[in-house]
Design goal:
Layout (H helix, E strand, L loop, with lengths): L16 E6 L5 H13 L3 E6 L9 H7 L16 H8 L2 E7 L1 H9 L5 H8 L4 E5 L3 H5 L1 H12 L3 E2 L3 E4 L5 E5 L3 H12 L12 E6 L4 E2 L5 E2 L6 H12 L3 E6 L9 E5 L3 H11 L5 E4 L6 E3 L18 E3 L3 H8 L5 E8 L4 H15 L3 E6 L11 E9 L2 E9 H22 L4
Helix pairs in contact: 1-8, 3-5, 4-7, 9-13
Bound molecules: cytidine-5'-triphosphate (CTP).
The site of cytidine-5'-triphosphate has 15 residues, from helix 11 and strand 16.
Length: about 425
């Protein structure tokens, strides 16, 4: 999982030396709370502010809360080499908030100020907590810099969605102080908080396709696209590069490469184009199984009588992926069923898993209240084989998304270990 839940015991912080780096963003005020939580957990905290940070928060506040006076300058009169001392002595360096500039300089090895020097001088684990505008967060330069740092072992606690500076709303909000403190403790305890899909490419399909009958009518289904969008959003937060092929009209989550489609045939074309480069494909779209043989040009009129609607099957995109997958690729299908019991639901999902030759089938019983199409919540069984079932009880679609991605990440990691990636 990307973020810890805030209830993680903070015991590992007791008696440790933590450098708390604060950079110049509107979220800098939240670093005050982070500082207090680290100190309360027994850490010896040295706050280090960049010059820009001091425009957002007072250095005196950090000096009062921290375990020693806050520092900003590379060459303090009293102590000419604080970067060596602080960096060498630290058990952990936390940067919250971390701006795009800090991330870029750190990735490039530029020590422009005291905090930059500490980051290059330290051998301690480093936790970056980025906060910035959605567009900046989504920019490939920022994502590539983070990927470089993660490859070097730096931990990144992804931002969340919410209110940003200037009244904007979106992905890029600093993680909650409680989660930052918990992530710091987890790192000190030797547990990873890493973005487990960093560097992975994930293709997600979402929404229900529309099969044209004439110029104004179509055959459709009740899928809203919300579950697929939640998967795409969660995958971005976990570090993946996400291509979202969507037949939904909802606004796609930030940070995804969006391909809009309408019909099953268009979806098939988009998936065929993007699947070969994907490490995992999650087919959350409700793809029509049948379409009118011919869409009538123009509009069918009542006076012409009731039309005969001849249907033909659409191509089964998921089955095609299963038959042609590249080694190491993880394939996930969905099954929307009206089942008589959980066992019945899972038996149906297992049949689809075998028939379509995929790794996981996420099954939901759309006959149950608040489950599946059109709802904010879902309840699923993730079927990986006979007897290999994870049941995820009714929860927000984002929670379901993370449970699905846990299973995907586990398979990607074990395939990488076995070396069957290309
Ligand atoms: N799917 C697909 N191409 C289709 C139809 C479905 O790729 N033409 C994918 C969906 O995205 C989903 C899974 O296959 O991941 C659903 O399987 P499907 O057999 O379509 O389920 P149902 O429509 O429920 O099938 P049935 O009516 O046979 O139960």
């Amino acid at each position: 999982m990307t973020s810890t839940n805030g209830e993680e015991p903070l015991g590992a912080l007791a008696g440790t030396r933590v450098v708390l780096g604060v950079t110049g963003g509107i979220a800098a005020y939240k670093a005050v709370d982070v500082c207090r939580r680290l100190v309360d957990a027994g850490a010896f905290v040295s706050p280090v502010l960049t010059a820009a940070a001091t425009r957002f928060v007072g250095i005196a506040t950090f000096s009062a809360l921290g375990s020693e006076p806050a520092a900003t300058e590379l060459f303090d009169a009293a102590d000419p080499i604080p970067h060596t001392r602080l960096g060498q002595r630290a058990d952990l360096v936390v940067v919250a908030p971390a701006t795009a500039r800090l991330i870029g300089e750190y990735a490039a090895g530029i020590a422009r100020d005291l905090l930059g020097a500490i980051l290059l001088a330290t051998k301690a684990p480093v936790l970056l907590c980025p906060a910035m505008h959605t567009e900046m967060w989504a920019h490939p330069a920022v994502q590539e810099n983070l990927a470089v740092l993660e490859r070097r072992g730096v931990a990144v606690l992804a931002p969340t969605s919410g209110r940003l500076a200037g009244g904007d709303v979106g992905l890029g909000r600093l993680a909650e102080p409680a989660d930052i403190a918990a992530a710091a403790a987890a790192l000190l305890a030797g547990r990873g908080i890493g973005r487990d899909l960093a560097g992975r490419r994930i293709l997600v399909t979402a929404g229900g396709t529309r099969e044209p009958i004439d110029a104004v009518r179509y055959l459709a289904n009740r899928s809203s696209g919300r579950q697929g969008y939640a998967i795409a959003e969660a995958a971005v937060a976990r570090g993946a590069r996400v291509c979202l092929v969507t037949a939904s009209e909802l606004t796609p989550p930030a940070g995804t490469e969006v391909v809009r489609v309408s019909s099953a045939a268009e979806l098939a074309v988009a998936v065929r184009e993007h699947a070969p480069s994907a490490d995992a494909v999650v087919m959350a779209a409700a793809v029509a199984d049948f379409r009118p043989v011919r869409a009538v040009a123009g509009k069918l009129a009542k006076r012409d009588g009731i039309p005969e609607l001849a249907l033909e099957p659409t191509e089964d995109v998921l089955a095609e992926l299963g038959a042609n997958r590249r080694p190491g690729q993880v394939l996930v299908g969905f099954a929307a069923e009206v089942a008589t019991s959980e066992e019945d639901l899972e038996a149906r999902a297992l049949r689809k898993l075998v028939e379509k030759r995929v790794d996981l089938v996420v099954a939901n019983d759309v006959g149950r209240p608040n489950v599946g199409f059109g709802h904010e919540t879902n309840a699923v069984s993730i079927v990986a084989g006979p007897g290999a079932v994870t049941r995820v009880p009714l929860a927000a679609k984002r929670t379901i998304a993370d449970a699905i991605l846990d299973a995907v990440a586990e398979r990607l990691a074990s395939r990488a270990d076995r070396g069957d990636e290309q």
